Every structure is written in C-alpha cells, then in structure tokens.
Amino acid sequence: MTSLLVGIDGSDSSRRAVAFACRLAEESGAAVHIVHVIPWSPYSFTTPAENDHRSASKAHEITAAEQQIMQPALAVAREFSVTPTSSVVHGSPADLLVSIGAHDTTSQIIVGRTGDSRIKQVLFGSTPVRLIQISKTPVTVVP
Predict the structure, then answer these.
(1) Percent of the chain beyond pLDDT 70?
(2) pLDDT tens digits, 21-73
(3) Positive or negative CA dihedral for 81, 29, 94, 96?
(4) DSSP string for 67-119
(5) Which residues make beta-bridge pairs with 86?
(6) Checking CA distances to 141, which of 8, 21, 83, 131 falls within 20 to 30 Å?
(7) Is the confidence at residue 79, as pLDDT, over 80?
(8) Is the pLDDT of residue 109 over 70?
(9) Quick count: other Cβ atoms within 10 Å of Cβ 118?
(10) Looking at the DSSP assignment, which residues form a beta bridge with residue 35?
(11) How far from each other are the two terminal CA atoms of the chain, in whole angstroms?
(12) Nearest Cα residue to 109 out of 121, 94, 124
C-alpha cells in the first residue's frame, strides 16, 4: 500500500494540503501520515543547565503543537473516510520530511504553500522550495 506524507505548519494552506491528501487517499486507497516538524537546530552551544531546559522545552513544544496544529489538521481529516497517522517531531522541516518520505511506500509528499513573509523567504528559504530541491519523492505544493 502506498502512503501520502503531509507536512503541516498550522496555516490555511496546510489544512488545504490535508484535505487534498485525504481526497487523494479516498480515491487511491493510500494511507495518510500527517507530520508537523518543529524547527530545532541541534547545533547550538549550550551548558548542561541549558540542555536540561531544552529537553523540557521540547516536550512543552510537542504538547502545544499537538493541540494547536495537529488537532485542527486531524479534524479536517475526519471529514473524509481516511484515518491518518500523525506525529510531531523536532528538526529541520524539509530534511525530516524527505527522510520520512524516503520509505518505499511513500508515493508523494504534500505540503501547503508557505505563509512566511517575503523577507523571511529570501533570508531563509521556504520549506516547499527546499523540498522540491532535495526530495527524490514527488512533492505537491497546495496553494
């Protein structure tokens, strides 16, 4: 069975990406996996006390993301006859989505168009653009 990987960020376009993936899954019989990646760099200099705080901070961020980002996305999925799996992880959004999508069963990575400002996109790039550049799995960007 093939699967569709949906990367979400809580934006309106990511909710449309979830709906798009669920509609596609209904038609094709594919499984849907919804993922939210909390940007987090492992490359920072920290003291042992900061490391203790980072662990607690990560747990708090995951709980908040599950409530504020994942639950609304799963509510969109309930409108379809699809029961997705979901996860919230820390790391580089594009790199982790590519890594998760590298499994043989993932036929497509689906993301919404970014809601970032033009300045942020110019300085840091956007996740959809990075995905298109580095993914070996087809990427669909939903407006």
Answers:
(1) 87
(2) 999 999 999 999 999 999 876 666 666 777 677 777 888 899 999 999 999 99
(3) positive
(4) IIIIHHHHHHHTTTT---EEEEEEE-HHHHHHHHHTSTTEEEEEEEPP---HH
(5) 34
(6) 83
(7) yes
(8) yes
(9) 7
(10) 7, 87
(11) 27
(12) 94
pTM, full prediction? 0.87
Q: Domains of the chain, with CATH numbers?
A: 3-142 (3.40.50.620)
Which residue, among 22, 42, 20, has the nearest Cα to 32 in the 3D structure? 22
Say how far apart CA 31 and CA 55 lie, in whole Å. Answer: 32
Given a contact cutoff of 8 angstroms between Cβ atoms, the answer to whether 125 and 95 are in contact is no
pLDDT higher than threshold 50 for residue 122:
no
Sheet of 106-112: strand order equals 85-91, 31-39, 3-8, 106-112, 139-142
SS3 state at 117: coil
Cα–Cα dist 75/59, whole Å? 23
Distance CA 71, CA 104 (A): 27
CA distance 73 to 22: 11
Position 115: which residue type?
G
Distances (CA, A) of 10 to 6, 23, 76, 106: 12, 19, 12, 22
